[in-house]
Write a structure and sequence with these properties.
By secondary structure, the protein is α/β, with parallel strands linked by helices. The protein is built from eleven helices and 13 strands. The strands form three sheets. Strands 2-8-7-6-5-3-4 form a seven-stranded mixed β-sheet, sandwiched between helices. A four-stranded antiparallel β-sheet has the order 9-10-13-12, covered by helices on one side. The protein is globular, with a radius of gyration of 21 Å. The structure holds 4'-deoxy-4'-aminopyridoxal-5'-phosphate (PMP).
Length: 354
């Protein structure tokens, strides 16, 4: 017999995760940092890479990287774990706390990879819907707790809506369940209050972060979590052997030596975000959602279909993300460099007045 192997049931009903990577003047669709890391970082990394014995497996405990993360976050090293981007960390968390016959809850709309990873790990998923301004209220967390979940995802600031969640809601979820409450703080450096102070009281809380956004390291794939030591022990049981290459660990360590420079970049991105918010609010007919992250979600007017606005922007060299499958007429734009935001705003003006 010939032909491709028979996949697991349903596999081919699920599309691969893709976000266009087009060569345009302003790539504002994936919330990357528009500025590269400083030259001193590249030098340090090149030197470090030159000394790595690549004939040997990397440190499976990622100790140096975790120590740097511990200094950076003031969280004990035993409660820190790292992986290839926070996406891999979220996968490991679901392998440990989700899986067949286990249930996860998400508050939608949120980062779509959370639900995708539930499918991947065969975790039963309950998606609770929030309405604008997308905050979790008492009735929402009561609804989540009633589902008797094993995993609860909270994203704050939330992607794609940009709002933060009140710490009280996160605390209530952690207090009322035995589930792993995973707080995705991929955008925390841009705004909002971290749930980190709650870790001391709630060992079922896990905070997931990344160096991909504020620390300009998306290409290296470094994510980490802050949790109780027990969670880190559990993750050790599901991780792949030597999952994080010595090269990736070195990139993470070097980036954490340049956090001071990152602070200036973060501030400049916040300025561009606020500029986008103000400019969009001043344009006729747009619905703009307040944002504490490095992006802004907005809805185009009814007589300007979002897909046509998206295409009109692309024709002018600006790539944004289409979120119409999540919210009608919704587009999300990343706060890029000043000249990229200039281009986006003038292109949008043009497209809307066509
Ligand atoms: N969480 C959220 C909310 C995100 O938006 C992203 C990236 N888009 C990630 C996690 C994953 O980031 P990475 O794997 O690059 O760390």
């Amino acid at each position: 017999m010939t032909g491709a192997p028979e996949p697991r049931p349903g596999l081919r009903d699920v599309a691969a995760y893709v976000s266009p990577q087009l060569d345009v003047a302003a790539r504002l669709n994936t919330n990357e940092c528009p500025h590269p890391l400083p030259e001193a970082f590249s030098k340090e990394l090149a030197e470090a890479v030159g000394q790595i014995p690549l004939n040997r497996y990397p440190d499976s405990q990622m100790l140096r990287l975790r120590e740097e993360l511990s200094t950076h976050t003031a969280h004990p090293v035993e409660g820190i774990w790292a992986a290839n981007g926070s996406n891999e960390l979220l996968t490991e968390l679901l392998l440990a706390y989700g899986g067949p016959l286990r249930r996860a809850v998400t508050f939608e709309p949120t980062y779509m990879v959370h639900s995708r990873l539930c499918w991947l790990t065969q975790t039963d998923l309950v998606q609770l819907r929030l309405e604008p301004p997308f905050q979790i209220h008492a009735r929402d967390f009561a609804g989540a707790v009633a589902m008797r979940p094993d995993v609860i995802f909270v994203c704050s600031p939330n992607n794609p809506t940009g709002n933060t969640q009140p710490l009280l809601a996160i605390e209530e979820l952690a207090k009322s369940t035995h589930s792993a409450v995973i707080v995705d703080e991929a955008y925390i450096e841009f705004g909002g209050e971290s749930a980190q102070p709650l870790l001391a009281t709630y060992p079922n809380l896990v905070i997931v972060r990344t160096l991909s956004k504020a620390f300009a390291l998306a290409g290296a794939r470094v994510g980490y979590c802050l949790a109780s030591p027990q969670v880190v022990e559990d993750l050790q049981r599901v991780r792949l052997p030597y999952h994080m290459s010595a090269l990736t660990q070195a990139a993470g360590i070097a980036a954490l030596h340049h956090v001071a420079e990152a602070a200036d970049v973060i501030e400049s991105i916040r300025v561009q975000r606020d500029r986008i918010l103000a400019a969009l609010q001043a344009m006729d007919g747009l619905t703009v959602f307040p944002s504490e992250a490095n992006f802004v979600l907005f809805q185009t007017p009814a007589d300007r279909p979002a897909d046509r606005v998206w295409q009109g922007l692309l024709d002018r060299g600006v790539l944004v993300r289409d979120f119409t499958s999540v919210l009608p007429q919704a587009l999300r734009v990343t706060a890029g460099a000043e000249h990229e935001v200039d281009l986006f705003l003038s292109a949008l003006q043009e497209v809307l007045s066509e």
